[in-house]
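Here is an idea for our session: we take a single protein and study its fold together. Start from the sequence, derive the backbone structure tokens from it, and show both lines together. Once you have written the record down, we can walk along the chain together:
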Amino acid sequence: MKIKLAILVALVVAAVWAVLANEPAKQGQGAILNLESERNLESPQPLACVPLSDITAQHNPVDLITGVAQCIEQERYAQAADLYTAAMTHGYYDTLRVSDQTAHQALMVTRMNAFAQAEQADLVALQDAIAARLEVPELCQQLTTLGAPQYHPDYMIQHGMEAFSAMPEDKGGLVADFDAQAAWEHALQTVPKCGVDTAAD
């Protein structure tokens, strides 16, 4: 009986020590997962479900995607499609000017966060609306008139690994000698296919 009791006590003690030994590792893991820099995925001017004519070059993709999510909730898919296309165009432009490649995932994470609660049917409706709106010349006209983004892409820069290292102030997370006009034209041609002949596609 004493032997069995001793074995039981030993097993309990071993189990307790195992939990205690594992606790710091869990805490450390949690600290790493929760590590987040200031202004990461920041939305300085979050939008409601508004028409494309209401946005400005000061709205970053997180602002725009916030509006997309609200449009989806209201089942206003055409407006959601326009805001989504603007967000992706701005976001693509930002990937061209933000030097830290690891920061470019900010756009994907923003979309995942915004659409996490959306129903599959809503996402299909959004996809169909995007395809339809890309056929409307007015969309490219509005985006072209809007012009290149005028905000500093902190939401993306602060999402990358360089945000946790000392970056030279003169670099600021941006590509040196960046050609804003050429990059904006490239973004318009790449995302909404503005100025691109797609008849042969």
